[in-house]
Structure formats: C-alpha cells, structure tokens
C-alpha cells in the first residue's frame, strides 16, 4: 500500500451544527448579505467611464516615447532648436525588445541637426514590439529620449505602429491627465 | 360540451379578444423594463453603472439587444434534432404568456357601461392552472437542452428536470395554506378574501416557501443551476442564438413577472391597499403593477446577493427543508381552519 509519509495531515471534521442554529445562521447571514448589497446600491458607482474620463497617470508612468530638442533658452542660444539625439544607437543596444532602429548620419556646417558630430537620420520605434521598459531612456547619455504619458496608441495596421522621428519629436495630440501630488 | 373549468365571470367573445391583446401587450412592454431594471440595479449593487450607452441612461439597451438578437443567424448544431430544437423555445414562451393570463389586475370594472374583469381569465382552478403551465414550461427547457445535442445543454436540462420535481411540490403545498384560509381557488376570490389582512401575515412561512420555490421555478439565482454560466457555459440554451435565444430570454423574464404577479395576488393582497384606502377602480392595475415591481426588485436583489447553490445543496434544501416546512405549514393551517370555523 502507498505510504504518504510525513506529508499526510489529519483532517478533523467538526460536528454539523444543530438544525436550529444552522437555520438561524443561514437566515441571519442571508439578511446580512441583502443589507450589504442594498447599501452598495445607494452608493455612487466607482466606475471611471474611460473614453470620457481618464485615470490620471503618475509622473513616472512609462507611456509613448518622446524625442527632445534643445529648448530655446538664452545660455543654449547656439543649440536652440537642435535635436538632442546624436545617433549613438545606445538606446537600440539597450532595447530588450529590439524595437528601435537608428541610422546615423554626419552633421555638416550647412546641415546641422544635432550639436554632436552625428545625428539620427532615421529614428524608428516599432510600438507593436515595445514593452515600455524604459531602458532606452536610461541608456541615453543626452536625455534625448524619454518616456511620455501617452498610452492610447491602438491602430488598424502594424505598419502604422512604427513611429518615425517626426512623430516622436511632435507633441502628442491629446494630453494624458497627470496625477497631481496627493491624488 | 361541458367547460373544462368553471369560470368566475364570462364576457362577450370580443371583449375576451381585446383583453388578450391588451394583457399580452402590457406583458410584452414590461419585459424590457424588467430587463433594463435588472441590469441597472445589478450594476448599482456592484458599484458600477450598468448599461448607459444606448439612449438616455441606457434606456434603449433592451431594444438594441433585441435588434441584435433578431438579426442574427439561426444557428443549429449538426447533432441537434431539428424540429424539437425549434419547438422548445416556443413552448417556453407560450407557457409563460399563458400563465400571465390569470394574474388579476383588478376586479370587474365598468368600462363604458360594459362590465369587464381586469384579468385574462378568472378560472376556478387558478393555482392549478399556474402549476400546469409551470410544469409544461420545463418541457421547453428540457427539450431545448436535450435536442441541442450538446452535453452542456443536456446537463443543464437534466438539472432543470430534477429542480422541477424538487420544488414544484413545495410550491404547491405552500399555496395550500392560503387556499384553505380563503376557501376558494379563484385568484380574484383569494384577493377578495384578503380584505381584512394580507396573507403575508398569517401565512408568512407559506410566503417564504413560495418565494424560494418561485426563485427555483424561474431558474434564477441562487437556483440558476440550469444555466450555471460558470460550469455549463450557458446550460440548456448553450447552443441557442438569435431569435430562439431571445425567446428563452423573454420567457425567463416573463416568468419572473408571473411569479411576482402570483405572489402579489396571493400574499400581498393584489389590488387592495392597506389602512382601508379604497381608490377608484382604475387605480387597481397600477397598485398591482407597483406591488409586482417590488417583488421583482426582490428577485433582482436576491440575485445580486446570493451565490449559486451546489447541486446537492439544492436537492437537500428542497427535500429536507422546504418540503417539510411547506407540509407543516399546510397541516397547521388546516388544523387552525377546522378549529376556528
């Protein structure tokens, strides 16, 4: 015969409660349950009606990527408007999903796109592969790519989900509500 | 030819036809209301809104559902038995509508000088008529489940059959107490007998047993084992879609209304109002509808509260608790009636 060894545990069953007690228990618990559901009915629903109302995201929420330009501030006067990305491909190397494609090109005095030697001629992120881990943001030595707050990126074709440099540099069409402090 | 049953009050044939149409139309209009009310109330009890997209506050949701269902393909599995598969939802809906006919919405009223009873028909065998159609209604479920040729449907149908046997006895016995006290089987007679006191007070246990058996009779939570979405996909109507599924759905909610109507009539005093208020006759149907609404709310409330019973729990509850309780109630009432008269 099979010996279960030390793993075997004894199960002791308590005697079933008497008819009177169990009837009372069944009634009382049923009434308590009815009271609970009735109470919930009087409260306001907790539903967030999504397309109209949106849950605010936290400041560190990792949504759609953004590429950045230098701001138009006086001390950076010479760099104002230039792209921060220098086409080093560190983000593509860091990407675990292998969804970033960077093709670098040389800057020339006539055609200067970034302050460094090179710039990203092609910068594409395939959003259907991206896992929004944020490693690209960490890897970037110039803070050129950051994770934004936009998460509504569904589309009808896969090719539409490949975001080009122009799309990533542009501001998102609709701003996602940001969670304020203490919210 | 002798009539099948003695009828309390006869009208002209054309009044009967008009009444049949009016009652069917009212019943038909009530079903979407109950459907929407259930979904809204269930939503609120679960801290959500329920349907609120179609029309103002989701009011057109039942209409959208019906349009969706009726425009769908009449699908039938290859293992199904054709004519029974089509016949079963018809049985369900016919019995539900037929049972609706005996609910009295008021006594005989003078409408334009013509005395008209505000009910489909006042048969002298009221509760028996109800049980007869309640029993036939299960054929709709059983045939539907069996003829689908699917094991989930079959299991649901077999559970339905067992449930019917367990609960119909208790339901009948629960009504016996009322019938003893009222001394009549006519539903209008039972209402008139409640002039002094509604039967919910002296027949409280009968009311409870009848209500619980009513939940089982209409296959609603916590006794919706024939459907049991979690384990049987959809139970007896798993293979149904389109208009046939709509028929089952319609029949289920009409049955809820029928049981609410019977509870109102038998235990809640029908069209009678408490504290000796006697409104004019045209108010009676609204009083009945209001009380039916309260009982229907109870149905929805219980559905939101209680989890589904396990199959053996259902059986032991039916036979070991409900049946003795109903029998005892009938016996005690019988003794009291004999002693006091």
What topology, given as strand order, has the largest sheet of chain B?
Answer: 1-2
**Form type of chain A:** elongated
Mean pLDDT of chain B: 83
Helix content of chain B: 55-70%
Shape of chain B: globular
Give the radius of gyration of chain A. Answer: 29 Å
| End-to-end separation of chain B | 37 Å
- CATH architectural type of the largest domain in chain A: 2-Layer Sandwich
Q: Find the structural class of chain A using helix and strand composition.
A: alpha+beta
| Strand order in space, largest sheet of chain A | 2-3-5
Largest interface: A-B, 14 and 15 residues
Descriptive report:
The complex is a heterodimer of chains A (183) and B (341). By secondary structure, chain A is of the alpha+beta class. Chain A has 2 domains: 17-46; 65-169, Alpha-Beta Plaits (2-Layer Sandwich). Chain A is 21% helix and 13% strand. Chain A has 4 helices and 5 strands. Chain B has a two-stranded antiparallel ribbon. Chain B is globular.
Show the helix and strand layout.
The complex is a heterodimer of chains A (183) and B (341).
Chain A: H1 19-42, E1 65-67, H2 90-94, E2 100-106, E3 118-126, H3 135-139, E4 145-147, E5 162-163, H4 165-169
Antiparallel strand pairs in A: 1-4, 2-3, 3-5
Chain B: H1 13-45, H2 61-70, H3 82-100, E1 108-111, E2 114-117, H4 126-147, H5 151-182, H6 187-192, H7 204-217, H8 229-232, H9 242-267, H10 284-305, H11 311-340
Antiparallel strand pairs in B: 1-2
Looking at this protein, list some descriptive labels.
heterodimer, A: 183 residues, alpha+beta, Alpha-Beta Plaits, 2 domains, three-stranded antiparallel sheet, two-stranded antiparallel sheet, B: 341 residues, mainly alpha, 11 helices
Provide a concise account of the structure shown.
Helix content of chain A is 21%, strand content 13%. Chain A is of the alpha+beta class and 183 residues long. Chain B is 64% helix and 2% strand.
